[in-house]
Amino acid sequence: MVAEFTAWVSTHQSRFEDVLQRLLPASEIAPQRLHAAMRYSVLEGGKRVRPLLAYAAGELAGAPVERTEIAATAVELIHAYSLVHDDMPCMDDDVLRRGKPTCHVEYDEATALLVGDALQSLAFQLLSEHRLNDDVGRQLQMVKLLAVASGSRGMAGGQAIDLASVGKQLSLPELEQMHIHKTGALIRAAILLGAYCGDKLSEAQLERLDHFGKLIGLAFQVVDDVLDCEADTATLGKTAGKDADNDKPTYVSLLGLAGAKEMAQRLHSESMATLNEFGESARRLRELADFIVLRKF
């Protein structure tokens, strides 16, 4: 079973890299430096957790993979833009991402800013120019979903709360609220966008998937906080211990290492329970939930 899941992940990651290669502007097209920096920031890096979640949800909903991969790309481009901007000196000021220099280090700050802007625009271009659902109203709903997940009520808002929380001790509900926006919103969007590419699920089932996404999105962040304490920079591919050095509130600083690990396991169990009604068809989502909580990097 583990070998089969590993093969599924490898196949979809490889397919997804090919999709990104095709959909990102070629570096030979003007403006060449911007396009080269966009490709540098997106290609050959990361675990592609969000696209894998979109693929798995698409399979559950009976979606054609050609549609799902466009939705997955849109989400990954938003994620990549957020990393480029988060690493800039005006935000988290980091020099390493996915084992290589961050975009503003490899290029420059102005280019990094434009890379984020261009990746965000390309994400919505893809959602609007490809047929992802035969119902035009549903496709418009998909565009709105990603917009909300990316904006002030989603990822950008969560980052704003994060920056305002440096040096403060947040309560558990406050910390959860921050990460439901900063990390969780895009993970939930990946799952729902994948599901929206198909037509097999009822509104009640889509709500169950959204709840699964909320729980596993929080678990993802809790595990990230644990790894930031336990793993080294080479393993993580980014600067280890950065949050502690910057006096940022984390689940480890609030609950301790053992408490954070216990919380991750609880969220994992609750997320699994939300998938019970789907039976075997949710196998890939369950396996991805295991991967998210049990990962070592």
Structure description:
With 297 residues, this protein is an all-alpha fold. The chain has one domain (2-294): Farnesyl Diphosphate Synthase. It is 72% helix and 1% strand. The chain is built from 14 helices and 2 strands. The chain has helices spanning 2-23, 32-42, 49-60, 65-86, 103-106, 109-129, 136-150, 155-164, 172-196, 203-230, 233-236, 242-245, 251-274, 283-294, and strands at 96-97, 100-101. It has a two-stranded antiparallel sheet with strand order 1-2.
- Main pleated-sheet profile: 2 strands, antiparallel
Find the CATH superfamily.
Answer: Farnesyl Diphosphate Synthase
- Beta strand %: under 5%
Mean pLDDT: 94
The CATH class: Mainly Alpha
Oligomer: single chain
Give me the secondary-structure category.
mainly alpha
Overall outline: globular
Question: Treating each run of at least 4 consecutive H or I residues as one helix, how many helices?
Answer: 14
